[in-house]
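Researcher: We're teaching a course module on how sequence relates to structure. For the next exercise, students receive a sequence and then see the predicted structure as tokens, so they can try to spot secondary structure elements on their own. Here is the exercise chain.
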Amino acid sequence: MPQRDTVFKITMLLPLIILTSYFLLLVGSQSAFFSLSGFIEQLSQSDIRSAITLSLVAATLSSGVAVGVAIPSAYALARFDFPCKRLVDTFIDLPMVLTPIALGTLILMSWNTAIGRTLSSIGLTLPFTLAGVILAQFTVVVAISVRMLKATFEQVNPRQEQVARLLGCSAFGGFIHVTLPLAKRGILAAIILTWARAVGEFGATVMVAGTAKGQTATLPSSIYLAMSVADLPRAVTLVVILIGISLLVLFGVRMVLERNR
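Model: And here is the predicted structure for the students to work with:
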């Protein structure tokens, strides 16, 4: 029996070891092109600092709006019955299966409708603007946020909400004081993963806002521009920055979740 347990553990651990080794190989491959002096020199350039700032600001705004919209939307899908619920639930997932480039094309085409022209007439333009970057990122990440939060709310026992109602809470009060605290881990995970996905978004952002240096060039689009002209030092610098941001965020999430436990 112990021998069978050992074989089982090895069978489960081996794919994990291979997968981890593969990711380490991908990250470690940057070391052949990386130098600290070159990294510092690249950081001193204004367009790289602008790309970092734009990525952080746009991802924070777009993920904040996405989660703000996703929380009530996901709760409605998890708790309420309404006409065409399955159709709505399926339609919400559309951005998850469409390529980001297709989503960017849809956004641009929507700006040629009456609503889009009205928004343009009041000054809300998309090409080469922060608004275009935020809208593109929001469109890509909001479905992910809704799906994660729907699963989170489904794990919260409805009886606890009913008890709160019996004790005098309103529906909104029960949601604020009972549901949200019980779902806080899932909400935190959704916020972080939505933000991380927004930081790495490329296709829709390029289609909608372009890649103007110092204006709409985010970290991913700056990497694309650097590789298009074979500027490996710049590309490696941007990749290392993106990896560093991602690892810091993921590590921070795990620390917070451990404390909450």
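Model: If you want an answer key for the exercise: The two ends are 34 Å apart (CA to CA). The mean pLDDT is 86.
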